[in-house]
Every structure is written in C-alpha cells, then in structure tokens.
C-alpha cells in the first residue's frame, strides 16, 4: 500500500521530533505533581499515596502513547495507533483525573494564587468548555472528523497537525472525564440525569464510530487493520467506560444516601429516601 | 425483614430489575453468541445506517443500565426496601423485552445481524423470540403479582 510507504517516510522525517515535543509536557506535569506532593506535605497532612501512584501510571499511559515503540508501530499500523488512542484519550485522562491534580495544586499554591486559580475555574468560559455536551462534541466529534476525513492520513505528514491532534485527544479526554465524574473541585456541576444522558450519547458515538471504521477503513488504512483496530476501539472503549460508569454511579449512590440512620427509619412508613 | 415499601420504592424495584435484565441479556448476547460461539458478527455488511445507530445506542444504554440497575439494587437494600419478587419480575421483563426487540427489530427489520448464518435461520428466530416472549410473560405475571397496593397489605402479605 502506498500509504504505508508514505507513512514510513514521513515518520522518519518528523517521528523523533514529535516524540520529543509530546514527551516534554507530560514529563513536566509528572515532575510538577511529585514536587507539589513534596511541598504540600510539609504544610498539610500526607497526600494520599494512591493518588500519586494513579498520576504516575496515568502519565506513563500517555507517555507510552506519544513516544517509544508504540508510536513507531502506530505510524505504520492502525491497530497500534488505536491502542495509543485508548491510552492517550481514555485511560490516561481517567487515571489522571482520579489523582485529583487540581486539589493538589490548590493546596500547594499560596492562598492568593490559589484564589486566583479557583476564580479561573469558576469563570463562565470554564463552565462552557466543561459542559458535558460541549465536551462530547469536542471529544467524539473530533474523532469522527479524524477518522472520516483525510485528516488521519494528513496527520502523519504534517507535524503541527500531528501535535495538535494528539494534544486535542488527550485534553478532550480529560475534559470529558471531569465533566462526568467529580473528583476535583467542580464549580460547574450538572445533574445526574443530564450527565447520564450525555454519557450514553458519547458511548453511542464511540461505538458507532468503531463499527464504522471496521466497515469503512479510514483513508490509507488496510482493511484487516481497520477491522482489528475498530474492534479494539469498541471493546477497549467499553472496558475504560465501565470504570467511568461505575465511578459515576458510585458518586450517585453516595449522594442519595439517606440522611438519617436507616435503622431509625424502619417504622416510618412514609420513608421514601431521596 | 422489616421493609419500607412505598409506591416509589415499588417502582424503583421494578426499574432496577428491568435495567439489570436488559443489561444482562445484552451481556450474554455479547459474550456467548459474539465472542464464544461466533454466531453473530461484529458488523454485518448489509447493516443500514439506522441499524448501526440503533445498535450503538442500545449497546451503550445496556452497558450503562447494567451497572445502574445494580447500584439501584444496592440503594434499595440500603434503604431496606428491596422487594426480591418484584425485582425478578423486572429482570424478566427487561431481559425478555430486550431479546424480543433484538430478535425482531434489530435482526429482522434492520438486519444488523442474524442469530446464526445458516440455511434454516427461521428455527433459531422462533426459538429466540419464543424464549423472549416467555420471559416477558413470566415477568409480567410476577410484576402484576407484586403490584403495590398499600403499605399494610404488602407488609402483611410477606
């Protein structure tokens, strides 16, 4: 296939440069998080070790998707590209959200700067870009554009496009996760039914696209790779969304906890709960 | 067991069952027929756009519903308003309803995939849909049987 050939050539052109450029930001946030843990532990009680571990694993998932052997294979093989997509766009954001980076930053920063940050988080613009429906359009819509147009093929030829798409995949995955589950302070909270509806729509969009890729390979992708890549996207997406949905319901389960001790309500016939 | 049966909890028992039932049938379909037996196909070449959307939506919903149904179950237990018989009625209704929808609308009308790619697929279709109808009937009987009337009646009936 001619596309494979052009991928290989293009890869040799900018492969190492793009790897370095994408490795830097993720390495920086890994180091910053660890520094913040050390600094804030001096002032406050111990930051949970589990969160630090989640952050490390999350950043490693992202790093493995933007540098190293997986990237080299992803340039030539669509299935590897899809594995990278799952790691960068879904698993890494989920693990990193669970590490509560904003909470850590807020407790590390001096009060005035922490206030400034929380003012930014509360701003209207943040409310709009973290609204579930907006995020799903950015996230799933972006994927539809990537795989249904010639963008996927072009991505491997233009370094800026390559960088932009990879950063977009990660950021939109992160925004999607924080708009669905609330681990960090979330000033723009939305209701459970709204989020559940949007989450189902997002899952639907992801599932349909996976099957569409299976049937209609993106430009430059051989059929057998599109089939295995599509199935990986479908079932892999399900696995990661399973964790997201469980956390979503767990938060609902905690939120509707009866206020009074249930044992006291036994005799109360009007007790409905919430 | 002292229970807090109210109209609301009665509805919740039913819905928890329906959601979980739908999800469990979808799960069995996916693991047994798709993955283990390879009777169904991941994608059928004749699939229409509408069929693909319907399939995607139902897959997403059932995935979501399975987990949601179980969390509702946990919530009912916590509030001591779990009504097992009604919950099972809901499961049978949800499972049967999903299977009947899958077997008639998705398999036949939309042609997403067939149960099995053999000559006499009609036999499979009949077995599939009769099982679905039987589950709906059994579920319906259980649900009617456990209809919420009044707190006292329910409490006494136990």
Please give a structural write-up.
The complex is a heterodimer of chains A (274) and B (158). In chain A, helix 2 packs antiparallel against helix 4 (78-98). Chain A has 274 residues and is an all-alpha fold. Chain A starts with a helix and ends in a 19-residue tail after the last helix. Chain A is globular. Chain A has helices at 2-43, 49-66, 69-74, 78-98, 101-108, 111-122, 124-129, 132-148, 151-155, 159-180, 192-215, 223-255. Chain A contains 12 helices and no strands. The relative contact order of chain A is 0.11. In chain B, helix 1 (7-36) packs across helix 3 (84-109) and helix 3 runs antiparallel to helix 4. The interface between A and B is medium-sized, with 40 and 29 residues.
What is the topological layout?
The complex is a heterodimer of chains A (274) and B (158).
Chain A: H1 2-43, H2 49-66, H3 69-74, H4 78-98, H5 101-108, H6 111-122, H7 124-129, H8 132-148, H9 151-155, H10 159-180, H11 192-215, H12 223-255
Chain B: H1 7-36, H2 49-78, H3 84-109, H4 121-145, H5 151-157
Helix pairs in contact in B: 1-2, 1-3, 3-4
Largest sheet of chain B: none
Largest inter-chain contact set: A-B, 40 and 29 residues
Identify low-pLDDT runs of chain A. Answer: 264-274
Mean pLDDT over the full residue set of chain B? 82
Strand fraction of chain A: under 5%
Low-pLDDT runs of 5+ residues of chain B are none
Can I get a quick summary?
The complex is a heterodimer of chains A (274) and B (158). With 274 residues, chain A is an all-alpha fold.
Main features:
A: mainly alpha, 78% helix, disordered C terminus, B: mainly alpha, 5 helices
């Amino acid at each position: 296939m001619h596309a494979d050939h052009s991928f290989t050539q293009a890869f040799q052109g900018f492969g190492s440069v793009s790897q370095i450029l994408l490795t830097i930001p993720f390495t920086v946030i890994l180091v910053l998080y660890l520094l913040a843990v050390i600094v804030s532990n001096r002032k406050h009680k111990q930051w949970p070790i589990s969160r630090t571990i989640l952050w490390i694993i999350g950043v490693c998932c992202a790093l493995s998707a933007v540098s190293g052997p997986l990237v080299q294979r992803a340039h030539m093989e669509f299935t590897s590209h899809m594995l990278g997509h799952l790691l960068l766009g879904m698993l890494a954001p989920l693990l990193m959200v669970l590490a509560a980076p904003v909470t850590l930053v807020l407790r590390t920063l001096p009060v005035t700067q922490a206030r400034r940050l929380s003012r930014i988080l509360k701003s209207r613009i943040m409310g709009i870009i973290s609204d579930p429906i907006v995020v799903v359009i950015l996230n799933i819509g972006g994927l539809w554009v990537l795989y249904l147009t010639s963008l996927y093929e072009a991505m491997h030829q233009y370094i800026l496009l390559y960088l932009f798409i990879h950063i977009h995949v990660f950021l939109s995955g992160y925004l999607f996760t924080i708009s669905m589950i609330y681990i960090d302070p979330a000033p723009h909270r939305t209701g459970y039914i709204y989020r559940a509806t949007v989450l189902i729509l997002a899952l639907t969009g992801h599932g349909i696209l996976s099957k569409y890729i299976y049937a209609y390979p993106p430009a430059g992708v051989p059929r057998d790779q599109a089939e295995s890549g599509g199935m990986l996207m479908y079932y892999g997406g399900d696995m990661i969304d399973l964790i997201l949905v469980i956390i979503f319901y767990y938060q609902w389960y905690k939120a509707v906890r009866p206020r009074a001790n249930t044992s006291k309500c036994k005799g109360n016939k009007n007790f409905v709960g919430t | 067991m002292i229970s807090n049966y109210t109209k609301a909890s009665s509805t919740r028992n039913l819905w928890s069952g329906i959601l979980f039932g739908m999800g469990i049938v979808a799960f069995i379909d996916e693991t047994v027929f798709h993955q283990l037996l390879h009777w169904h196909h991941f994608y059928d070449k004749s699939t229409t756009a509408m069929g693909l959307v319907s399939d995607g939506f139902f897959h997403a919903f059932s995935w979501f519903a399975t987990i949601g149904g179980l969390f509702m179950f946990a919530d009912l237990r916590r509030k001591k308003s779990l009504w097992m018989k009604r919950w099972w009625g809901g499961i049978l209704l949800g499972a049967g309803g999903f299977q009947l929808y899958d077997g008639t609308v998705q398999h036949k009308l939309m042609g997403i995939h067939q149960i099995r790619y053999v000559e006499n697929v009609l036999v499979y279709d009949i077995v599939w849909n009769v099982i679905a109808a039987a589950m709906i009937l059994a579920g319906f009987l259980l649900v009617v049987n456990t209809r919420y009337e009044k707190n006292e009646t329910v409490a006494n009936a136990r």
